[in-house]
Amino acid sequence: MEFLLISGSIISPVLLFILRRKWPGSRLYLNGLAVFSALMFGNIASLAIHEIIEDKTVFMTNIHGLFLNPFFLVTGAYLGVYFLYRMLIWTIEELGRT
After folding, report:
1. What is the pLDDT confidence band of residue 62, given thresholds at 50, 70 and 90?
2. Closest to 77 measured CA to CA, from 19, 26, 38
3. How far is CA 81 from its chain centroid?
4. What is the pTM of this model?
5. Which UniProt keywords apply (predicted)?
């Protein structure tokens, strides 16, 4: 499982970069999906924190239940891959300027 996670975090941004090169229109979709993921990720986290505050439960124990939410995991995973993809773009652009 560790191998899949690590190799996926390396291969996925490269695949997004290749998709961007082959189909320039994909940039709009990738950016839109990142905005949607950021909204979902933030809203899920804030609602979980609000519920903990309202219920007056132990924060450090109950907040970890957030990691069981599949939407939280999927949106967070996409944001991580998207961030690496953007860093790859920035790096390649910087190499082109030097």
Report:
1. confident
2. 38
3. 6
4. 0.87
5. Membrane, Transmembrane, Transmembrane helix
